[in-house]
Predict the 3D structure of the following.
Amino acid sequence: MKQDEAEWEEYKKVMDDVIKRSGLNRSSFYDLRGNHDNFGVPYTGRSFDFYSTYSINGQLGRRGPVNSVTVQTGRRNILFVEFDSSASLGLRGPTNLFGHPNDRLLTDISSELSQWDPLPAKPVLKISLGHFPLSFSAAAYSGKTLKDVFLMHSLSAYLCGHLHTRFGNNLKRHHESNHHPLYTQQFFQLNGHGLPVETREEEFSLKSTEEFWELEVGDWRKSRTMRILAIDRGWSSFVDVDFRSGAKKTIILPTFPLDSRFILDKSFQRNESLSVDPTLYNDIRALVFSSSPIASVVARIYDSRPGNLIVVFETPMKKTGNALSRGGLYTCPWNFKAFEDPSPLRFLLQIESVDISGRTTLTELRPFSITGQRASLPWSWKEFFVMGCQWDALYYPILSAFYFFILSILLIPKTALSFSEKQHTRKRFIANRGLPNLTTRILVELYIAPQLWYCIFIYLLYLLLCPWFWGQALMEGERGYMTYQGWMLRSDTNEKLKFFGFPDVMVVVLPHLYFVLLPALLVIVAFVVEREIYRESLRAHSGKKDDADVKNKIFASTCGKIYRLMLLRMRVVRKMLLGICLAICWRHFMNCRALSKAYEMNPFIHFPIYSLWVPLVLAYTIRRTS
C-alpha cells in the first residue's frame, strides 16, 4: 500500500471548495494525519510526504504534532487538542496500522491539556482529537499510554478515526480509572461501558472516578458519515448523520437531557453537600438545522415500563436567538423531577420538526437519565474485536500461545517415546482403543514420521530467529527485512539497524500462524493418522483372512467384501483433507500475492522459505501418506 498524489490533489480541491462555501476562515479547519497519509513516507517533510504539501495543516505551517484551540465563553473554556501519533517512519501498508505516540508526544499532549489548569476560575471542558483508537495505539517506550494522559487531565471525549464504520456503527468505548483488582491490567474490555454497573457504583463511592469517552467518528469516503458535536452548558452531545441516501434537509441534535448511553459520571454531581444549578435541568434543548424554514418543533417523551411505548410528555419547542437563522437552539420547559428513575432506559426522548413544505424529520428514540445512570452499550463481536482488545498488549501473549500449543504437539510424543522403543510404544497405543488414549496416539503417529517432525520444528525456529522476507518498506531507500519483532531498517542519520513497525507486523505474523500454518500442521497430523489407521486396518483384515476356518470361507468372503468397502470409504477422509489443503494453499497464495505487491517482492527471491514451505510440506505429506 502506498499513496497516490492524484488523490491528494483531489483532496485539496475538495477542501478548498468546502472552505469557500462555508464562508469560514481557512484557519478554522484542521485535518489530522492518519496511517494512510503516512504510507511509505521515509521522513516527515521530505519527498512522498504529500500530507505536508496538500493538507490544510501543512499549508498553514502547522508543523508540530500537537495543536490546540480554546473556545472561551462566559461560563467556561472549551479546549480542543489534536495530535498526530502516526509513526515517525511511515512504513508501507499493511504493516502501518498502529499509532506510535512516543514519550515526547505524550508530554506535549499533557502540556496542552493542562494549559488552563493554573486558572481555575472557569471550568474547562477538554476534548482531544486523533486518528488512531486507543486499541490500536502502542505504548511509549516508558510504558505510558494515551489513556494514562487523558485520565490524568480529566478529558471528556477522545474523537478518533481509523476504523471508520467498517466494523460497526457502535465503535464507542468508555474508559475510566478504577481500583478493582480484576481490572488493574486490562487486555480487553467486554462492552462499551466498561465495568459492570454495580462495580462502577462501588468504585464511585470509594473515590472520584477519572473517565472519558472514546468515540470513533466514522468516515466520509465510503460511509458518507458526518458527526456533529455540540457543547451545551458543559455537556457534550453528538449525532451521526448518514448521507449515503442523499443530502439531509433537516438535522436535529438533542443536547439535553443527555443520552444515557454516553453519560459521564462526572457530568452529574452526586455529592449532596454541593448544590446543583437547577437551571441546567429546567429545559429540554435541541439544535435544529434545516435548509428550509422550520414551522414547528415538538418534544415527546415515551415511557417504556409498561412493555410498550406510551407518550407521557408532549410539548412544542420555541427557538431562541436569531429567528432568521436556518439553524438554532429550540427549548421547552419541563418538570425534570417527574422523570427521575433508577433505570437509564425507561424514558425515551424524541424530537420532531416540520418545515414550511410539510416535511417531517424525527430523531431516533434516545434513552435519558436525569440521575446520571448510564445505560449498557453492548458490542457485536466485530466491534469488540477492534475496540475492546488492546492489541499492542495482546500481540506477544497470542504469539506465545501459538508456540506453546504447537511445541506441545511436537515435543510431548518425543518425550513419551524416549522412554521405550518406538515400535513397542506404538503397538501399545494401537492396542488400546479407548478414547483417553486417542490424543496421545495421534501425537505418537506424527513423531513416527521423523522427516515431517524435523521439518516443522526447524520452520518454527526459522520464524523466530530469521527474517521472514526482504521488501521495500519505504518509498525510497534500501530494502529491509521483517521479523516477528518488526522491520529492520536503517535510521536517517544512523547507520545502525533499528526495528520499526512493532506491533504493526502482527497483521502479517498472526494471520500466517493461525490461519495458514496452524491449519496446515493440523492437516499434516490428520494425514499421518489417517494413513496409519488405514494400514492397520489392512493388516488386521489380512490376518483375519489367513486364520479363517475352511468351513467358513463363504462367510469370510462376504465379510471381506464389506470390510474392503468400509476401507474405501475411509479414504474419503483423505479426499476431504486434500480439499482442505487446496483451501490452505489458496489462502497462503493470496497472502503472498498481497505482500509481493505491497513491498515489491519476488516470492522466489525475497521470501522463498515463507512462500514455499507450506505448499511444499503439504505436497510432501500427501505423497508420503498415499
Q: What stands out?
A: The radius of gyration is 32 Å.
